[in-house]
């Protein structure tokens, strides 16, 4: 076996504040590569897929053959696509890129063509149960260095709303981490008409308070029908959003035509997408402005780079998914890809807890609103096994919604 043949591949599951699944690949020469396989609320499904079905296929393969390995894992399974399969493939892909860049002695972005910019504009997550609390949250994010802000708020008459940090999270921080450590998912309520009445008033107040220059974003989180999404996009036009995200479930890609015909508010979508096929109509017909997929859930750096190259033909930009259920490994992979591609748009950045950074040490930085992956060889992320052992997996679920009459609704 050559020195770059894969000697071992190990699946690491830990919960330093929240659950993460990490793949560690080691070559015969002892070069280590890490990949993120975290699927929030369904972590063990990917861990099993990797351990039982993928790891045995990796031993002895040449770690340098990234594209061949990607195609082998995708096509040999026969049952293609889906979040579990694509997260597993992503973990392998990123780990192999990490190895290749370490062997080259270069930060990963150099192998992707080098830097196309000096830094990566990032947006933070501000939220509040009322306007004063929301304004305080926006100011805290501005003070922390963010220059672009996602705005989420409670809605009168709805007890719990996606995106609003109403209580301390499991890691002890006042931010929004919806996965709750519990044997069953929490039930939340929803009322679309109340939401549609309230949100434009919130953005009017935010613009009046913070002025016209601050880039503002909002996440609809798949909860509207196409005509409802069209109405919200039109109602928000006076407030000049950077984007309206996930305004309607997009399994039916044709639905975005209706939204697009009614509003000029920029549209971002795709955090639950897993392959280029999910985007085919959306990109070809220019029905969106930003691709929101994560490296972790879309087959890795190799696959997401292909999606961005396709999107670039239609002047569609990147907006990689980056909440804290993407591990620092997945986040670092996103930043290296961001830095290299030409059609970068913006990067979501939800900062991990101090406990998470005890397990994952990183080289990426955030300064004056901009992220940079750093110049350490490879991804620039290391995994501390001893620290991880202090934080075993704990079952956690995302919530779900019901309407007032009891109907299960998109959360």
Automatic annotation (TrEMBL):
One of its GO terms (molecular function) is mannonate dehydratase activity. It comes from the Bacteria. Residues 132-266 form the Mandelate racemase/muconate lactonizing enzyme C-terminal domain. Gene3D superfamilies: Enolase-like C-terminal domain, Enolase-like, N-terminal domain. The keyword DNA-binding does not apply. Pfam families: MR_MLE_C, MR_MLE_N. Keywords: Lyase. PANTHER family: D-GALACTONATE DEHYDRATASE-RELATED (PTHR48080), STARVATION-SENSING PROTEIN RSPA (PTHR48080:SF6). This is Mannonate dehydratase.
